[in-house]
TrEMBL record, chain A:
Intracellular or extracellular location(s): Cell membrane
GO cellular component: formate dehydrogenase complex; plasma membrane
Stated family: Belongs to the formate dehydrogenase gamma subunit family.
Cofactor(s) needed by this chain: heme
Record-given protein name: Formate dehydrogenase subunit gamma
Membrane topology per record: Multi-pass membrane protein
Main location group: membrane
UniProt key word Nuclease: no
Range of residues in the leader sequence: 1-28
Protein keywords: Cell membrane, Electron transport, Heme, Iron, Membrane, Metal-binding, Signal, Transmembrane, Transmembrane helix, Transport
Superkingdom per UniProt: Bacteria
From TrEMBL, chain B:
InterPro entries in the cross-refs: 4Fe4S_Fe-S-bd, 4Fe4S_Fe_S_CS, ET_IronSulfur_Cluster-Binding
Name under which the protein is recorded: 4Fe-4S dicluster domain-containing protein
One term of GO molecular function: 4 iron, 4 sulfur cluster binding
SUPFAM superfamilies with a match to the protein in the record: 4Fe-4S ferredoxins
Superkingdom, taxonomy of origin: Bacteria
Length: 333, 198
């Protein structure tokens, strides 16, 4: 029995040896143990990113490689500067040319000396809160895109970093009152800003500033409605994308943040260009317009020329504000 | 001058995380930040592969290009470093980086990410070499002492190579020749716009 067992063992051993000998040429000839493993270029071609598992607490670091940052870099350093530069400098140029040719749009019938309330104290407060925030947000935002080529060479690294740091804090914290302002503007002026047939006629006649005409309008004419919707939609977009960037990874990964930055910055520079036009018309572009947001009361003649239908409504409701005659301004013009 | 690079021979990486631990300890990197990590793709499945990754110190680095305050600089050795005194923590380098290298001590807290932190190739920062301020902000400056990054020095399988790009590429090529296979230098095409022909 013992010899039989030895025989079996010998037979097994011989078999095993035979297997090894037969397999040997292959293994000696360089077997690639990772031949079936994933390949970098193949993964990048499939998904444009490589992701895996990490054993450290920060699970977001599981993204190994995502070369699309390159396209985002091109957008941030080249495309955005062109869009922003053309939109903002273009708008300024158009306004300068317009002012030089057309000048301030005067009150044709002069001032009546009688005024009517156009914006209440609350409305003006909301407007100026949003406006102040907007100007600071715009300057601190433009600094991120244009500061490095334009301002940094002038004031040096330390001063520019210090200023940019404060600008960033201002940008982040003032976003909250700005967002509240946009929401309040949306709610308190929505009724007067729904497009209607009067707007079509108003646009056809070139409005009050392009055409030498005074087409009738309700409380807000088509141009003002445009500004309203730019503020509401543009403001909504910059707020939403801005918060996505301020709270990283709450809403998306890196690729989502790149997209958020693209939307945020393009909408923002167009927004700035539109607001430059708004500021122009509200100040030096049109006589009597600033008072609407300044004192809150406009001259009856201004209201008649620019918002005839609104004036008719108001007159039917309350009548003009006789308590505050303005003889000083009535004498002018 | 040398052009310092990292090269991960992914066929040798066994995900032991010695590089990660070495880096954290050498530089006393704060909790929550990992300048280097090991990513395992297809973990536990056929075709699994581990790759260690940190800042690749790219040629024409995207982080430096997009930084709004221009706080990055490239040393004579090709190492991409930054100044934490100039950094405003805006997060732009982190959107641009293909390797997820820049990190912030306070990610998630609005308004204040804190100063960006990333792999320095064990080369410190703009402060005087080996000074206390440099160590506190950026960690050890081994390069100034004539030593290579500790992650590569400590790699248990010598998968991670650090040093002059041409020399480590040569070492890798010889390995590939000898063993007969190689999966290429991971990240090189993205970081340096070149691959190692093998």
């Amino acid at each position: 029995m013992a010899s039989f067992g030895r025989l079996i063992r010998l037979a097994f051993g011989a078999c095993a040896l035979l297997l090894v000998i037969m397999a040997a040429p292959a293994s000696a000839q360089q077997v690639n143990p990772t031949a079936s493993s994933v390949k970098e270029q193949q993964l990048l071609q499939e998904l444009n990113r490589i992701q895996g598992r990490v054993s450290i607490p920060d699970q977001r670091s599981g993204v190994l490689e995502q070369p699309q940052g390159r396209e985002w870099r091109e957008f941030r350093n080249v495309t955005l500067r062109w869009i922003g530069g053309v939109a903002i400098i273009g708008m300024l140029a158009v306004l300068v040319i317009f002012y030089l040719t057309r000048g301030m749009v005067r009150l044709e019938s002069g001032r009546s000396g009688r005024t009517i309330v156009r914006f209440t104290l609350f409305e003006r407060f909301v407007h100026w809160m949003t406006a102040t925030c907007f100007i600071i947000l715009a300057i601190s935002g433009l600094n991120i895109t244009f500061g490095r080529p334009l301002l940094l060479p002038l004031i040096g690294f330390e001063a520019f970093s210090e200023w940019s740091q404060w600008a960033k804090y201002a940008h982040n914290y003032l976003s909250f009152p700005f967002t509240i302002g946009v929401i309040l503007i949306f709610l308190m002026w929505i009724a007067g800003n729904l497009p209607n047939k009067v707007d079509v006629a108003w646009i056809k006649r070139g409005g009050g500033i392009v055409g030498h005409d005074h087409p009738p309008a309700y409380r807000f004419n088509a141009g003002q409605k445009m500004i309203y919707w730019i503020v509401v939609i543009g403001g909504g977009l910059v707020a939403a994308t801005g918060y996505a960037l301020m709270f990283p990874f709450y809403m998306s990964g890196i690729e989502g943040m790149q997209m958020a930055q693209i939307i945020h910055s393009v909408v923002a520079v167009l927004f700035v260009a539109a607001m430059i036009a708004h500021i122009y018309i509200g100040t030096i572009g049109m006589e009597g317009a600033f008072e609407a947001m300044g004192s809150g009361e406009v001259d009856l003649n201004w209201a008649r020329e620019h918002h005839s239908l609104w004036l008719d409504e108001e007159m039917a409701r309350t009548g003009p504000n006789d308590q505050t005659p303005q003889p000083a301004t009535a004498a002018a013009e | 001058m040398a052009r310092m690079k990292f090269l991960c021979d992914a066929d040798r990486c066994i995900e032991c995380n010695a590089c990660v631990t070495a880096c954290k300890n050498e530089h006393e990197v704060p909790w929550g930040i990992n300048r280097r990590r090991v990513v395992t793709i297809n973990d536990g499945k056929p075709g699994e592969r581990s790759v260690t990754m940190a800042c690749m110190h790219c040629t024409d680095a995207p982080c430096a290009a997009v930084c709004p305050v221009n706080c990055f600089y490239t040393t004579a050795d090709g190492v991409v470093l930054h100044s934490k005194d100039l950094c405003i923590g805006c997060g732009y380098c982190f959107y641009a980086c293909p390797f997820g290298a820049p990190q912030y001590p306070k990610v998630g807290n609005f308004g204040s990410r804190g100063k960006m932190d990333k792999c320095t190739y064990c080369a410190g920062g703009p402060e005087a070499d080996g000074s206390r301020e440099e160590y506190e902000k950026y960690g050890a400056n081994r390069l100034a002492e004539g030593k290579l990054p500790l992650c590569a020095e400590m790699c248990s399988t010598k998968s991670l190579l650090a040093g002059d790009g041409e020399i480590i590429a040569q070492i890798y090529k010889e390995r590939v020749m000898k063993r007969g296979y190689g999966s290429g230098a991971w990240g090189w095409k993205t970081a340096y716009r070149e691959t190692i022909e093998s």
